[in-house]
Design goal:
The protein has 10 helices and 4 strands. The protein is of the alpha+beta class. A 4-stranded antiparallel sheet has the order 1-2-3-4, covered by helices on one side. The chain is globular and about 75 Å long. The two termini are 41 Å apart.
Length: 288
């Protein structure tokens, strides 16, 4: 029997401590649990308690509805806008940057902007998962994100304070607040092979696919403008006054200068003279 998320409005059970408060972003919960759990195991030698804190699986019960929606959208993009048996989520699939650098907001060219993005569900999904696998369960038809939460840069041995300071000095100047957080993970989090297993049920993704396909369609207003613009571009007989010499005279009729123009751009130019000069039609987003 399926336990998948068929509807984002479906009640999602809350597990105290394991899930954390609904208001706390997933990226914050994940790194806190990982670091505390690892340090309990590493410094205190309490393996059972440390594993309970920092190695419990991350599932759909740990994420907010908005974060689950962001993961669904990333999964659809990772599968090329279709429902396939599997896919691989890359950093660009979260759609959080306006540049060609998908790492720009996770320690790249944009710095971090971490505080401003702290409650952005797309950014939280990106900062928590990064690259991850998407797989379809053949029995239920539901999709799962499969990953393991840890820090690849983390060394197997304990990190000294001097080493932690060196990590900070290397990361913070170029990465800002994100560099501070990442430094704690690199120094005190779980290394590769340890950490929290990730198995997040995304549901069957049918609704997410429909949602993304609808977003890709041009808006109703834009389609209406395109229709009117195409009407203006329809082939018509030129006026004898404008046409100049006829074909019979051995010269060709001048072609329509607007024939190859974008219909919406053409319509803007046609409408501009009749609107207030203080209003520039190019400033409007006709896709909304």
């Amino acid at each position: 029997m399926s336990n998948g998320i068929k509807d984002l409005d479906q009640a999602m059970p809350f597990i105290p401590f394991a899930s954390g408060p609904e208001i706390v972003p997933l990226a914050v919960k994940s790194i806190l649990k990982d670091i505390v759990g690892k340090q309990v195991r590493e410094r205190l030698g309490l393996e059972t308690l440390g594993s309970f804190i920092g190695e419990r699986p991350i599932t759909e019960r740990d994420v907010k509805r908005s974060e689950l929606r962001a993961m669904q959208d990333a999964a659809i993009r990772a599968m090329g806008g279709n429902l396939r048996d599997k896919g691989h989520i890359e950093y660009e699939d979260y759609g959080t940057t306006d540049t060609d650098d998908p790492y720009a907001d996770v320690g790249g060219s944009e710095g971090s902007g971490l505080l401003a993005k702290l409650f952005d569900p797309d950014y939280n999904a990106k900062a928590t998962l990064g690259q991850a696998m998407v797989e379809r369960d053949p029995d239920t038809g539901e999709y799962y994100i499969i990953d393991q939460y840890n820090f690849n840069e983390r060394k197997p041995e304990p990190t000294s304070l001097d080493e932690f300071q060196s990590i900070l000095e290397r990361r913070v100047p170029g990465q800002g607040a994100y560099g501070v957080v990442r430094s704690f993970g690199e120094a005190y989090g779980s290394p590769s092979g340890e950490g929290q297993p990730v198995r997040i049920n995304l549901g069957d993704l049918e609704a997410a696919l429909a949602r993304n396909q609808e977003q890709d369609k041009p808006g109703l207003f834009s389609r209406g403008l395109a229709y009117l613009g195409n009407l203006l571009k329809r082939d018509r007989e030129p006026s004898p006054v404008l046409a100049g010499p006829s074909v019979a005279d051995g010269t060709s009729v001048p072609s329509d200068p607007d024939a190859d123009r974008d219909p919406i751009e053409l319509l803007r130019d046609k409408l501009q003279p009749i609107v207030s000069p203080s209003i520039t039609l190019n400033e409007f987003d006709f896709d909304r």
